[in-house]
Design a protein that fits this description.
The structure holds 2 protein chains of 2 kinds. By secondary structure, chain A is an alpha/beta fold. Chain A has one domain. In chain A, 25% of the residues lie in helices and 37% in strands. Chain A has 12 helices and 19 strands. Chain A has helices at 4-20, 24-27, 30-37, 55-58, 75-79, 118-124, 126-132, 142-150, 384-392, 397-413, 419-433, 441-452; strands at 90-95, 98-101, 114-117, 155-159, 169-175, 181-191, 196-205, 212-222, 227-235, 240-250, 255-264, 267-276, 282-291, 296-305, 311-320, 325-334, 342-351, 357-366, 372-380. In chain A, the strands form 2 sheets. Chain A has a 10-stranded mixed sheet, covered by helices on one side. In chain A, helix 3 (30-37) packs antiparallel against helix 8 (142-150) and helix 9 (384-392) crosses helix 10. By secondary structure, chain B is of the alpha/beta class. Chain B has one domain (5-255): P-loop containing nucleotide triphosphate hydrolases (Rossmann fold, 3-Layer(aba) Sandwich), CATH 3.40.50. In chain B, strands 6-9-10-3-11-12 form a 6-stranded mixed sheet, sandwiched between helices. A 4-stranded antiparallel sheet of chain B has the order 2-1-4-5. In chain B, strand 11 and strand 12 (228-233) form a beta hairpin. Chain B is globular. Chain B starts with a strand and ends with a helix. Classes of the chains: A alpha/beta, B alpha/beta. Chain A binds chain B through residues 383-386, 388-397, 399, 403-404, 406-411, and chain B through 53-56, 76-78, 80-82, 86-87, 89, 92-98, 102-103, 106-107, 110-111, 114, 146, 163, 167.
Chain lengths: 453, 256
């Protein structure tokens, strides 16, 4: 018996409680997800694509689920403050799995824009949420089906036709629980025709000694000519396990940037599945992973070209130190009819110690003529000539190594289009390589003040 | 007044991948002097400069190097720099993603840290950069780029002399600084070296050709051949070599 059964048991035994604290649109998908899980197991190391990360093991412990939704400290939201300079955002906080707007955020949203609780949005706009919820993600994935079967709330973001959100949206995921906890989170983003927005998601652990597990599914629907920049920043503790999937579907002329950055983590698995359905789309999927100690990061990407004249680029970089381990499996599929596709993938990795391990598996499947595609993966050590050059100028070995690792990551950081965030990231990465706690300044003090309450 | 000894190389042997390249170098450089080391390809000129700078991959098998009272070979490359050794690389390394400004700030402040001096303020640092850039007419635009990335051959060499100007070394080793330079760039680079010359520091110029020595006048010319210095004389030796080539020296040496 695998660990999946404890979750299907919860569904069978607590269906009423699950439904009672959620919304009919969300509840309507549970049975289908449950059916999809029949006869399945959670992926383990024998499952293709999961050779280096066992979801079975990750989800085996009984973390505890707050299905009756008690003791949610709503004052967390009021006290939270993200102090990234030169960056003013419309901020919402998800504590475990429940959304809280911060300050006067809601009143500052432009007309028609929705940014708030998924369950609440589903109650207020059942037709709109129902049209997209569960339609981008695939229940073929056991982890997605598990999330769909048990999820009760999350976040809904809706940007109406031709609305360009000037201020970036920011979403901070926080774990707050005195005992081990599993949070099942869901994000649905709908960009209507010609809409554009930027979103920064920050994943934090408050109590790094506590054990947490998150199951996060993000669905992004990009209608024609819409644009979304999505930044996903993880800074969590070694006791945190994260199983995240981002699904995106792009219609014609849409543009998507996803940049997933792991500054610190415990055991992280990120899946990216991008379906390029329309013509003339632009996609940039970037990832930066920094791990030390016994941290583990596994990124798995799939960019599926169906439309013609689309351009996609994937850029993943890892720096692994100590006994950290990393894995990358990246796929490009160019389907029949996806003519004039340009699809590139690059995975470059640095091993800063002899104990660090990296596994990379780039894949390219082309079923169409007249395309330009390439992929490349390298894993190596710091450039010894550059290191000596710097040392010969008096820069000590430790600092020279730090500077070179930072330089290595700057290519990924520079894909960030929010200037304040880009500068902050350069600084955070520098601090991270200097071995300092990288938790972002004022943000950490925000968490600290939460803890005191 | 006697000059102070700055560098004293005694019976230096060094090998690369188990192959002995330097076979007993003896060389003494005093303050205020300019030495030229010439010699045919493969004689060990660049190996000597790399060994003195402390490059990994070169192993010293015998001998000693005294650098104003310090045992040079016992110091890390960064400490050799702090103590006043500077190598102008034959092939300056490109470092994508590290800006010239950050590179130089780190270099300057690491040296200050070594001597327990406070870090340079932002405005003092920028002032220093401006002053030193002028010495080799280095374009301000290059300062905002990554170290040597996309620099032309001439710009790379000027950048080396710029770094030398900032770090104010006691001993500079210019390894084939003239290679890849057109005549104008050569004049600027040599002019920079001459401006930095004082009676307290010294320069070792490693070169194939007499050309650079028209601009940087050596006090002594040494010929390195098969890992040893086979001849030492005044500046006239460089002219003689230019005229006769190295063959007559090789013949002499091989008869021994």
């Amino acid at each position: 018996m695998g660990s999946l059964s404890q979750y299907t048991d919860i569904y069978r035994d607590h269906r009423e409680a699950l439904d009672g604290h959620s919304d009919p649109v969300i509840n309507a998908m549970r049975a289908e997800a449950y059916e999809a899980l029949k006869g399945k197991e959670l992926p383990d190391r024998h499952t293709e694509g999961y050779e280096k990360t066992s979801i079975e093991e990750m989800m085996a412990p009984d973390f505890g689920l707050n299905i009756n939704r008690v003791n949610i400290p709503v004052d967390v939201a009021a006290s939270f403050h993200c102090g990234v300079p030169n960056m003013s955002t419309l901020l919402g906080i998800v504590v475990n799995d429940s959304f809280h707007p911060v300050g006067t955020m809601l009143s500052r949203l432009p007309d028609g824009v929705i940014y708030g609780s998924l369950a609440k949005a589903a109650a207020e706009h059942p037709e709109l949420v129902g049209r997209y919820y569960g339609k981008v993600a695939s229940l073929d994935s056991a982890t997605t089906a598990l999330n769909t079967m048990l999820v009760q709330d999350g976040v809904f973001i809706y940007v109406p036709k031709s609305v360009a959100l000037e201020k970036p949206l920011q979403l901070v995921n926080i774990f707050s629980s005195p005992t081990p906890l599993m949070a099942i989170r869901r994000v649905l983003i709908v960009m209507e025709e010609g809409a554009s927005a930027q979103l920064l998601v920050c994943d934090h652990t408050q109590d790094c000694a506590q054990k947490y597990l998150s199951s996060q599914i993000v669905e992004i629907a990009l209608n024609a000519n819409s644009r979304l920049d999505y930044y996903d920043l993880e800074e969590s503790g070694e006791g945190t396990a994260r199983c995240s999937s981002i699904y995106a579907r792009q219609e014609s002329g849409s543009s998507l940037l996803i940049n997933g950055m792991t500054l610190s983590c415990g055991n992280t698995r990120n899946d990216y599945a991008i379906e390029i359905a329309g013509d003339g789309c632009d996609t940039l999927l970037a990832g930066m992973a920094i791990a030390s100690g016994h941290q583990h990061i596994d990124n798995n990407s799939s960019v599926n070209h169906r439309g013609s004249h689309c351009h996609s680029r994937q850029l993943f970089k890892y720096v692994l130190d100590d006994d950290a381990s990393g894995a990358f499996e990246g796929g490009i599929v160019v389907n029949e009819g996806a003519v004039m596709t340009e699809a590139y993938q690059s995975d470059r990795n640095l091993l800063a110690s002899t104990g660090a391990k990296m596994h990379t598996k780039p894949q390219l499947l082309i079923y169409c003529d007249d395309v330009k595609c390439s992929h490349g993966a390298t894993t190596g050590q710091l450039d010894q000539e550059a290191l000596f050059y710097m040392r010969s100028r008096g820069i000590g070995e430790k600092m020279a190594r730090t500077m070179l690792m930072q330089a290595f990551m700057s290519e990924v950081i520079d894909t960030v289009r929010m200037e304040g965030l880009r500068e902050r990231l350069h600084m955070l990465v520098e601090k991270r390589f200097h071995g300092q706690q990288s938790f972002c300044g004022d943000c950490a003090s925000g968490c600290a003040s939460v803890k005191k309450q | 007044m006697d000059k102070n000894i700055l560098l004293d190389i005694h019976d230096l042997h060094a090998s690369v991948d188990g192959k002995e390249i330097l076979k007993g170098i003896n060389l003494r450089v005093n303050e205020g002097e300019v030495h030229a080391i010439m010699g045919p390809n493969g004689s060990g000129k660049s190996t000597l400069s790399m060994v003195l700078a402390g490059a990994p991959g070169y192993s010293v098998t015998a001998g000693s190097v005294d650098f104003h009272g310090k045992q040079l070979l016992e110091l890390s490359p960064e400490d050799r720099s702090h103590e006043g050794l500077f190598l102008s690389f034959q092939y300056p390394v490109e470092i994508p993603g590290v800006s010239m400004v950050n590179f130089m700030r780190a270099a300057v402040n690491e040296k200050r840290k070594y001597f327990n001096e406070p870090q340079l303020s932002a405005s003092d640092f920028l002032k220093l950069m401006r002053q030193k850039r002028a010495i080799v007419e280095l374009d301000n635009k290059l300062a905002s780029r990554s170290v040597n990335e996309g620099f032309s051959g001439g710009e790379k060499k000027r950048n080396e002399i710029f770094q030398m100007a900032v770090l104010e070394p006691r001993l500079s080793i210019l390894d084939e600084t003239d290679s890849g330079l057109d005549i104008d760039a050569l004049r600027i680079v040599a002019g920079g070296v001459n401006k930095l010359k004082t009676d307290r520091n010294a320069t070792i110029v490693i070169t194939h050709y007499q050309r650079l020595l028209d601009y940087i006048k050596p006090d002594f010319v040494h010929v390195l051949y098969k890992g040893r210095i086979v001849k030492t004389a005044g500046p006239e030796l460089a002219l003689e070599l230019e005229e006769k080539g190295y063959d007559w020296l090789k013949q002499n040496e091989n008869q021994d």
